[in-house]
Specification:
The protein has 30 helices and 32 strands. The chain is α+β, with helices and mostly antiparallel strands and 863 residues long. The strands form six sheets. Strands 25, 26, 27, 28, 29, 30, 31 and 32 form an eight-stranded mixed β-sheet that branches. Strands 1, 2, 3, 4, 5, 6 and 7 form a seven-stranded antiparallel β-sheet that branches. The protein is elongated.
Amino acid sequence: MADKQSLTMQSIKLPGIYALLGFLWILFSDKLIILITHDVDSLVHIQTYKGWFFIIATAILLYLLLRRTLIARQYIEISLRNSEKHLSATLSSIGDGVISADIHCRIVSINRAAKNLTGWNCSDALGRSVQGIFPIINAQTRKEVENPVELCLREDRAMELANHTLLITRDGTERHIAGSCSPIHDTAGKIIGTVLVFRDETKEYRYRQQLDEERERLANVVWGTGVGTWEWNVQTGETRFNERWAEIIGHSLEGLFPVSIKTWEKFLHPEDQKSSMEALEQHYQGETEYYECECRMRHQAGHWVWILDRGKVVSWTKDGKPLWMAGIHLDITDRKREETIRRLSDERLESIFRVAPIGIGMVRERVICEVNQRFCEMIGYSAEELIGKSARILYPTQKDYDVAGETKYAQIESFGTGVVETRLLRKDGSFIDIQLSSAALNPNDFSQGVTFTALDITQQKKDQDKIAYLAHHDQLTGLANRFLFAEHFELAAGHALRTKTKLALCVLDLDSFKAINDSHGHPQGDQLLCEVAKRLKNAVRSSDTVCRIGGDEFLILFTDLPKSDAVTALIQNIQDCFEPRFNVEGVPHLISASMGVAIFPEDGNQFSILFEHADSAMYYAKESGRNRAQFFRREISERIQHHLTVEKELRQALLSDQLELYYQPIVQLPAQRMVGMEALVRWRHPQKGLLGPDYFIAVAEESNLIVVLGEWVLKTACRDIAAWRKMGLPPLPVSVNISANHLFEEDFAALIGQIIADNNLSPQQLELEVTENIFLESSDTVENAMKSLKDIGVGLSLDDFGTGYSSLSYLKRFRIEKLKIDRSFMEHVCHVQQDAVLVRTIIRMAKSLGMQVVSEGVETNSH
């Protein structure tokens, strides 16, 4: 404003001076002329000359003034050009970019640095919009930033470029820049433009970014390691801790503010303050490269935390005193706990080493370095006698030593540990079996030593041998059991195939052994089995195998037979060995055996098949009269197949209601009055018609279908009795045959009681017929079964009397009410005197015992 007023005053001053000088010239020149002359012509001429003089003088004055002005202006212009050149040179020489713009944001000037930074030269940039050559965005958000020139013009104040500003150059390159924009004012203070000063900070930005990343990584590393950091001004007590330092003791820095060395001392365990100060003093004196101390600090929860406090003086005062220290706090509570555990473990290990019940030691380069007391006791040497000696002293032979060592080290190299079983030689010359377990102290360097444990397994080996023997032998007789027999069979079968020879498998079952066992007790029965086993073993060759597979059943394998009939003589030897009576505790026993024989490979090339065929032949021998040997034949196989077929069809018959009951009257003589009935089961076969019991009862007995069949007969008979009662018929008792297998079922008596109750019958209306083979069971078992039935009230009848294992004592003991004379006696009673005498005797005996007699086969008047 002042410059404007000065310029205005100068523009007024010159015309004023000129006007004043003209006025004074006219005033004083006219007065001087009048004084000189009063002649008009002279006055006119003088006035004319005066006018020309004024014009010339004025022209000269104006010339001088203009010349001065021009010279001054020329000087100013030269100065201005010099100034501009100087300014341009100055702007070009500085590294910052400078762009000036007018009030319309158009480029007025651009220096070389700005040209290089923006990619725009002066000629192209002048007159363009600043936004056109200076586009900027935010480096983080990638959004456009408002031009600072526009902000500066709008707000008339200097504007700093925002952080993270990116300049997009003419060729699309991005540059990180920093700078400011300032307004330009004229002399009157009016804004006439702006100047934008900026610099390339791409390298600095990247450096700062790398530095920030390094700091972040360092912070992450520090955080990840769980290390607390600290800085301490030793002279002032000022401290700086990171957040982790406070976290270690359960606090936050904010909660501990303000922090100082007093803060650290407050949490330090009193017992650790002295050791910490001593460690600091040693570091100050240069005795240690750094300060280190393990101390305890109280956690906010109340317990003590073990800390590894480590640091170093990083700067000293001029007089050599420590100024700043920096260091770390590391939580070593777990490590201290582990050290305690390890120390206790070492103590326990040392204690275990001394008192362990197994031998423990260490060898290095196969030289004994250390042994415990138990190992010394096992081997019979003292520790002094063993330590320093070669391990060879422990082995009976060089071979044992080499094998154990090679095996052990090979296992360690492959698996990390080695376990071998070997023999060791005691000092007294005896041997012990040892399980040696070894491991290298360093798996990569065996020379550092190998530890071992030695377990005395001498007794265990004996037990294993005994277990192996028991696993393959019958405990009672000492013969091979079925497992060992099968192994021998596989080996013998392979040999037979290679040598074109034969094998014979014999299944042997003692005849009537159960009766002897029940009569004389199991101890005598077991002794008798042992005697049979001895005779069988003596009767076969050394290459043959005798096996007991359970009860009174034996297997014999005959090997190396040149042909099939070669087994006949061997079988005869077996039969002959039963000839002398067996004497057990002074009681003679006459024992016979039924045998079935199958030949390999004709009768089967597998053990299971051969055994099945021999077993079938043995049962055929029993059915054929016992005390004989039967070779397997295809007919026997067919019989077995028939048995299986009948069993299958009988099962279906029970499901399909193919069975029927017929009732045979029981007539009292001589009155010829019907006093009862006997239920007889028949099978109405879909293809074969009506079948009698001889066709299927034996199969039912063997397959245990007899239980299901017997239950069906009982229920059907009782249902029929109930139906007859409703029809008004007389309540005659009905006899039902009961199998021994069914009779000795645990819930048989309960079943009978339930069936009677379900049909609302009187127990006297049901009579059960049993055969003499029930007496082959234990007398206690028979007595309990019979007593349960008598308690119910049903009648008991002994069927087929005289054809089985009968005993008068059983008749008395079990209170049999009725005897049935078998049909075989009645067939010849009219023609054979002996049969007639037997029948009369049975009848008299039954009457004497108060028993009734029923006879089968009374079909004519002669009977």
